[in-house]
Write a structure and sequence with these properties.
The chain has about 240 residues and is α/β, with parallel strands linked by helices. It has 8 helices and 8 strands; from the N terminus they run ββαβαβαβααββαααβ. Keywords: Zinc.
């Protein structure tokens, strides 16, 4: 990670796309806090409400609860626009045409210059196995951005009034094993902790042995080259 470049800053609108509530809070929110403080427009888009994520709670109850926790966590880093796809269930997402179309629709609607997502690799940078929903969304984001800019793909989106958008300049993939760019998040670390802490019920259900948000993020974001500082790393794909 010694040769990571500084993350681009010459953009104004970002769309952060993940599968579940809390996915963005494991690192990306720290970067988001800096972006919103700088006046950039950041929107969150989640494929599901995470309704299958609490084993002790029925999905009908867990979904609305986790949706609100996501909104609360987003507010801690300056994000007020939090949207959820309709018709996709937690735990059984597939990288199919339905998901690609739904994501392409939202890219056309929000017209971002930067799109962020989680890695679609089988493993995270720390070697832990990635989850199926993360992989499905991460891969679909790459394809949806391309589809959003091509008027001949998903012509039904044109009929809905969603004009093509080929203005995405970068796709940033976090938690990848081979990052290319970095953001210094030392000054926003506390906001990132508060953002993850907002997922109170979800974290409580993980049990007392699960690391506290401060400890977990401290380990995930620690800068190996500068003690006491933090950084968020992502693989950036120029478009």
């Amino acid at each position: 990670m010694s040769t990571l470049e500084s993350f681009p800053t010459d953009w104004q609108r970002a769309l952060c796309i993940v599968a579940h509530p809390d996915d963005l809070e494991y690192g990306t929110a720290a970067a988001v806090a800096g972006w919103t403080a700088a006046g950039k427009e950041v929107t969150y888009l989640l494929a599901t409400r995470g309704e299958a994520g609490i084993s002790t709670m029925e999905p009908a109850q867990a979904g609305p609860l986790r949706e609100q926790e996501e909104r609360d966590g987003a507010a801690e880093v300056g994000v007020s626009e939090v949207h959820f796809l309709e018709g996709f269930a937690d735990g059984v997402l597939e990288a199919d045409l339905d998901l690609r179309r739904a994501l392409a629709r939202e890219v056309r609607r929000f017209r971002p210059e930067l799109v962020t997502t989680l890695t679609h690799a089988e493993s995270f940078a720390n070697g832990n196995l990635n989850q199926a929903d993360h992989r499905a969304v991460g891969l679909s984001v790459l394809d949806a951005v391309a589809a959003a800019g091509n008027r001949w793909i998903f012509p039904d989106l044109l009929a809905e009034g969603h004009q093509p958008w080929d203005g995405v300049r970068w796709i940033a993939v976090s938690a990848a094993a081979d990052p290319t760019h970095t953001v210094d998040v030392t000054d926003t670390f506390e906001q990132a902790v508060a953002s993850l802490e907002a997922h109170r019920e979800y974290l409580a259900a993980l049990g007392p042995d699960y690391p506290a948000p401060r400890d977990l993020l401290g380990e995930m974001l620690a800068d190996p080259q500068a003690e006491g500082r933090y950084r968020w790393a992502a693989r950036v794909h120029p478009r």
